[in-house]
Amino acid sequence: MSVLLIAGSPSEPSRSAALLDDAHAHLVARGVRVERLSVRDVSAEALLRADFSHASVLAAVRQVAQAKAIVVATPIYKAAYAGALKALLDVLPQSALQGKAVLPLATGGSPGHLLALDYALRPVLQALGARLVLQGIYATDAQIKRSPDGVHIDADIAQRVAHGLGSLLQEAGIAHALPASTPLAANA
Question: Where does the record place the NADPH-dependent FMN reductase-like domain (predicted)?
Fold first, then answer.
């Protein structure tokens, strides 16, 4: 059983990918098997043409099918999640998330985009059959800072990610993994 981390940003590096890196570290510390999928792993042409038979689309569909739980991270642009993520979600089968718990993570320039998690992303995840879409975690650009030394995630955000992951593991029946006694350092 594994948790699949889906990076919805078309850019690298990105703040939403930094949140996924933090989630990855928390999950590995708990002894959870983690897989990663980025929208950049899938052919852009296949996504735009909805080429369901393209090898990269089929590989993404397999990864989603094999996961017990999903963490999806996206930047919020103009009050909506990334178009590249939408294109990826559109090529998944209608029941791709059936029986799965999903934890959404998002980043944006200001708190004004927070509702995009509930009003834009959540309905699509539910339409794909997610058994449970957990309360999303939103971080502003000010809460994820880049420096020459790396990325620093605000301690409150790191703690919320750790808590959200604990809930995800419990909901997905992966709670037997090693407990994380304290959140990991917020530096990625």
Answer: 1-141
